């Protein structure tokens, strides 16, 4: 009988394609998950388990997601899916931040494009447009997040603009009123002239900016030390416009100052020979160079402490248009923020335009003047400069700096001016420069009810990943001023207070507060703007006696309160959250405001752990920008490669640092994905027709199979530990290396011969398929959180059903009997010896002494202990050779060696015999019909495959 031996080889068979086609396949799986209500069924199967609640930090609903947003959401999904697979109930409710400047700014941009004036639009109409805008982008972003494969309660997310949320935000605000921590004060805050509002720290970014710098002399009127008689104290500043608000000067107590007697000057210098100028000794030479003083001598030396108490005249006192407006004394005070890095060693103090200035002024009873309006223009009462603008409505330099410089020059106080490029605060939205401006605002005290101490204690009790996050957040809380919670905007939750005109105190009446909360819960925060005050004040109170507050709450107060209206109000969730997860910028944002809000109302943090990730850069580690053209849009990556490639990029990156992405990185991810997919395909192909009856008991497995299961048990422990540590990079590396090195390059390669060529019921083939079945079971579960689409496709390929899903599973538990440390140690050495053999075979192939490794029968020289170790193992099969001989004799000099395994050497010899046409081994036993004994037996039992 003529037999086509090729037809008797049991080659892998599977419908699982080698080419993934993810962009087309993934949407079909999304449709399946939707139609089978997978999320709801997952929740049903999880009831009663230990809860793991990752509370979603709400993104702004104001545009398409970008690569940083995709990173954040995928990372959250990895956390939730791994915790779910560990056997917990990871119920995830996504949310959106809907209030605040980002959305309001978009509506204003639309108005400007249409030539409309926002101030002419009724506020409720404007707020309605903001709400509609946010609602539109919620729907867009929801679809984009789902396309990433992110599981969550997408049908009932939370939004900060829902009526129940707005009502709870009002309740949280009123708790601070009840506790006495909420107060109205006047304080310099970062102010945007363009946006006409105060900005939170998290809304500020720093860019290079060119500012004017001036050196100004303040005449000494009452010296604290005789050496200062007839001298002038010199300050340096990069904000000339703050000089009209000057009320004091700061000095460093410990540093040395000198009275500089001017001897000679350049032609253009404002200083004159005979001038006596007081500057820091360490900065005197640089000062002289900047102001054109060519020669001088030290007339006197004093310490800063001796200068303190000196009273100077304001440099504009003598201006002809001052009309007595600057006739107040300007005293010198000691301050620890004065440095010797640049300038003159003196800092001019404008209490209305700087945090340090304000604190020094308050400590010393100095007036905090009001000089600038919300538009950045000097108020009418400011002498000389009324109507001058520091910044224009577009955020450009106004005429104030120039006007102040000219006025100082008229009085002889301006010693020099120049330009300085330095880092300066800008709005993250308008990109315009900011100013410190004294404004009436609402504050939450960091001291009342020990809020700072409670927050610091809460930080100490919180787990931080990475650990450095603790120190970062702690240092911010330790030094932060009182929390400014008011904004002068239109879209958001209003500060729902009435202030009694007679006393200036906010009204705190439980009945009034209850009416306010009820109205907001029923109609939303618009009720505050759309209702007469009588509705809230009730009978017995005259609205004319009260001012209704229309300031808007800082959006960080909104998002900082989400724990109250999400975690506490949803029975499926739990308070506090198991984890908050955001970018590292949120130490000053959401982590920060949530901590303060919760500690102020509940005495502890709303989270047990905080995880932070880095930012996304391009392949050259540059920030992404339109001008560089280096942005990577997640939508484009998904369209070209599929969402699983993006998910693999997140898992394979070390998120604790900044991440990089670009064409070459995506190509590398695609290659890595292909290796993982081929592993699953190999398993599926070789498990074709596998049944439970075919399984072999663990005790009857060959050593190689028992070693693989030992590695499965080890890997299970590593993966569980990595999931608990949120260390997905380690999880990925372990999985990738296991698939690429231990399986594909070792176990699969070795057992390919048995799987393809052994008889169907041979113990070796059955043992291999038993292990492949276990590997498929574990790998599909381990890969499911990362490659959520591919793992599902592979699982359904082997387990077809109407409603089945790999995501309904938990990580399978290895049999305790699989763990065998002694076997693991033995096979580490076996693999070392094998590596020397395969290295020798590679050289022989390269030198054309053999073709395939099956043409060889190497002679291996090794210690007697190793020869004993290999006894009983089919070492030729492990090395994929047709034969092998072990020798404990000394190895010849020409034998192949590896430096890292010095006691093993190999001489490659050709195998004796003929090549079996079925299994390709070269053996002496090959019969005239071209096949070996093993293959002859298999052919006799096999039907053509």
From TrEMBL:
Protein task: Catalyzes the attachment of isoleucine to tRNA(Ile). As IleRS can inadvertently accommodate and process structurally similar amino acids such as valine, to avoid such errors it has two additional distinct tRNA(Ile)-dependent editing activities. One activity is designated as 'pretransfer' editing and involves the hydrolysis of activated Val-AMP. The other activity is designated 'posttransfer' editing and involves deacylation of mischarged Val-tRNA(Ile).
Binding residues for ATP: 626
Keywords, comma-separated and alphabetical: Aminoacyl-tRNA synthetase, ATP-binding, Cytoplasm, Ligase, Metal-binding, Nucleotide-binding, Protein biosynthesis, Zinc
Subcellular location: Cytoplasm
Keyword Aminoacyl-tRNA synthetase assigned: yes
Primary residence: cytoplasm
Top-rank taxon, per record: Bacteria
Domain Methionyl/Valyl/Leucyl/Isoleucyl-tRNA synthetase anticodon-binding: 705-855
Co-factor note (free text): Binds 1 zinc ion per subunit.
HAMAP family: Ile_tRNA_synth_type1
Keyword Phosphoprotein: no
UniProt-listed Enzyme Commission number(s): 6.1.1.5
Domain notes: IleRS has two distinct active sites: one for aminoacylation and one for editing. The misactivated valine is translocated from the active site to the editing site, which sterically excludes the correctly activated isoleucine. The single editing site contains two valyl binding pockets, one specific for each substrate (Val-AMP or Val-tRNA(Ile)).
Span of domain Aminoacyl-tRNA synthetase class Ia: 29-660
Protein name (Swiss-Prot/TrEMBL): Isoleucine--tRNA ligase
Ranges in a coiled coil: none
InterPro entries: aa-tRNA-synth_I_CS, aa-tRNA-synth_Ia, Anticodon_Ile_BEm, Ile-tRNA-ligase, Ile-tRNA-ligase_type1, Ile-tRNA_ligase, M/V/L/I-tRNA-synth_anticd-bd, Rossmann-like_a/b/a_fold
NCBIfam families: ileS (TIGR00392)
Motif ('KMSKS' region): 623-627
Catalytic activity: tRNA(Ile) + L-isoleucine + ATP = L-isoleucyl-tRNA(Ile) + AMP + diphosphate
């Amino acid at each position: 009988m003529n037999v086509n031996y090729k037809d008797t080889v049991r080659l892998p068979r599977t419908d699982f394609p080698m080419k993934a086609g993810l962009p087309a396949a993934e949407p079909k799986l999304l449709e399946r998950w939707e139609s089978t209500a997978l999320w709801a069924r997952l929740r049903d199967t999880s009831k009663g388990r230990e809860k793991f609640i990752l509370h979603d930090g709400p993104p702004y609903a104001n545009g398409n997601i970008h690569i940083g947003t995709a990173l954040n959401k995928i990372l959250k999904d990895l956390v939730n899916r791994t915790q779910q697979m560990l056997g917990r109930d990871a119920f995830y409710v996504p949310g959106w931040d809907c209030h605040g400047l980002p959305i309001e700014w978009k509506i204003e941009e639309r108005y400007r494009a249409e030539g409309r004036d926002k101030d002419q639009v009724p506020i409720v109409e404007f707020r309605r447009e903001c709400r509609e805008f946010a609602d539109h982008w919620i729907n867009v972003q929801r679809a984009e997040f789902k396309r990433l494969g992110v599981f969550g309660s997408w049908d009932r997310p939370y939004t900060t603009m829902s009526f129940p949320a707005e009502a709870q935000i009002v309740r949280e605000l009123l708790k601070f009123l009840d506790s006495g921590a909420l107060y109205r004060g006047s304080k310099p805050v970062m102010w945007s002239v363009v946006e006409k509002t105060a900005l939170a720290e998290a809304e500020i970014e720093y860019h290079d900016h060119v500012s004017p710098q001036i050196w100004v002399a303040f005449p000494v009127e009452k010296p604290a030390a005789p050496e200062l008689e007839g001298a002038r104290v010199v300050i340096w500043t990069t904000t000339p416009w703050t000089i009209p608000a000057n009320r004091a000067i700061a000095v460093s107590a410990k540093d040395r100052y000198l009275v500089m007697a001017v001897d000679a000057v350049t032609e253009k210098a404002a200083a004159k020979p005979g001038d006596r100028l007081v500057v820091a000794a360490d900065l005197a030479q640089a000062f002289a160079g900047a102001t054109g003083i060519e020669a001088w001598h030290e007339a006197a030396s004093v310490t800063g402490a001796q200068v303190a108490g000196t009273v100077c005249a304001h440099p504009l006192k003598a201006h002809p248009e001052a009309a007595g407006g600057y006739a107040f004394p300007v005293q010198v005070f000691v301050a620890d923020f004065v440095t010797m890095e640049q300038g003159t060693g003196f800092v001019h103090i404008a209490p209305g335009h700087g945090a340090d200035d304000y604190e020094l002024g308050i400590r010393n009873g100095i007036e905090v003047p009001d000089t600038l309006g919300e538009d950045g223009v000097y108020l009418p009462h400011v002498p000389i400069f009324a109507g001058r603008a520091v910044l224009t409505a577009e955020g450009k330099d106004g005429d104030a700096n120039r006007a102040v410089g000219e006025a100082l020059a008229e009085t002889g106080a301006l010693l020099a001016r120049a330009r300085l490029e330095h880092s300066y605060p800008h709005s993250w939205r308008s990109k315009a420069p900011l100013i410190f401006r004294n404004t009436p605002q609402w504050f939450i005290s960091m001291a009342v009810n020990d809020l700072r101490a409670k927050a610091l204690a809460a930080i100490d009790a919180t787990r931080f990943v990475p650990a450095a996050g603790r120190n970062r957040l702690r240092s911010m809380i330790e030094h932060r001023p009182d929390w400014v919670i008011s904004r002068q905007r239109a879209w958001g939750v209003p500060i729902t207070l009435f202030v009694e005109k007679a006393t200036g105190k906010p009204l705190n009446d439980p009945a009034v507060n209850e009416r306010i909360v009820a109205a907001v819960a029923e109609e939303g925060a618009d009720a505050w703007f759309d209702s007469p005050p009588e509705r809230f004040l009730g009978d017995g109170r005259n609205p004319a006696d009260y001012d209704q507050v229309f300031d808007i709450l800082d959006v960080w107060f909104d998002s900082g309160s989400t724990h109250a209206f999400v975690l506490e109000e949803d029975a499926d969730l739990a308070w506090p959250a198991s984890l908050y997860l955001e970018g590292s910028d949120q130490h000053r944002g959401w982590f920060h405001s949530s901590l303060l809000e919760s500690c102020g109302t509940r005495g502890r943090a709303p989270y047990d752990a905080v995880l932070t990730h880095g930012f996304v850069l391009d392949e050259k580690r540059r920030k992404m920008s339109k001008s560089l053209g280096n942005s990577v849009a997640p939508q484009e990556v998904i369209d070209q490669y599929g969402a699983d490639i993006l998910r693999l990029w997140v898992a394979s990156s070390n998120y604790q640092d900044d991440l990089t992405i670009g064409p070459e990185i995506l190509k590398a991810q695609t290659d890595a994905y292909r290796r993982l997919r081929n592993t699953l395909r190999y398993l599926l192909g070789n498990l074709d027709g596998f049944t439970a009856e075919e399984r072999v008991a663990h005790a009857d497995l060959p050593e190689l199979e028992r070693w693989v299961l030992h590695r499965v048990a080890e890997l299970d422990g590593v993966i569980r530990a990595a999931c608990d540590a949120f260390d997905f990079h380690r999880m990925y590396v372990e999985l990738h290396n296991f698939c690429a090195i231990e399986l594909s390059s070792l176990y699969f390669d070795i057992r390919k011969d048995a799987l393809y060529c052994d008889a169907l019921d041979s113990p070796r083939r059955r043992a291999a398929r038993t292990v492949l079945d276990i590997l498929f079971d574990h790998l599909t579960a381990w890969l499911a959180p990362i490659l959520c689409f591919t793992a599902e496709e592979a699982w359904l390929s082997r387990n077809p059903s109407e409603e089945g899903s790999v995501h309904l599973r938990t990580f399978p538990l290895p049999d305790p009997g699989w763990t065998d440390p002694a076997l693991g140690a033995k096979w580490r050495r076996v693999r070392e010896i094998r590596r020397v053999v395969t290295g020798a075979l590679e050289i022989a192939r390269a030198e054309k002494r053999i073709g395939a490794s099956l043409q060889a029968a190497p002679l291996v020289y090794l210690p007697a202990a190793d020869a004993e170790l290999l006894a009983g193992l089919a070492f030729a099969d492990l090395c994929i050779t047709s034969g092998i001989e072990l020798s404990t004799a000394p190895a010849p000099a020409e034998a192949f060696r590896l430096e890292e395994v010095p006691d093993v050497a190999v001489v490659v010899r050709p195998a004796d015999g003929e090549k079996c046409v079925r299994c390709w081994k070269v053996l002496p036993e090959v019969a005239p019909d071209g096949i070996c004994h093993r293959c002859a037996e298999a052919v006799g039992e096999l039907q053509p495959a």
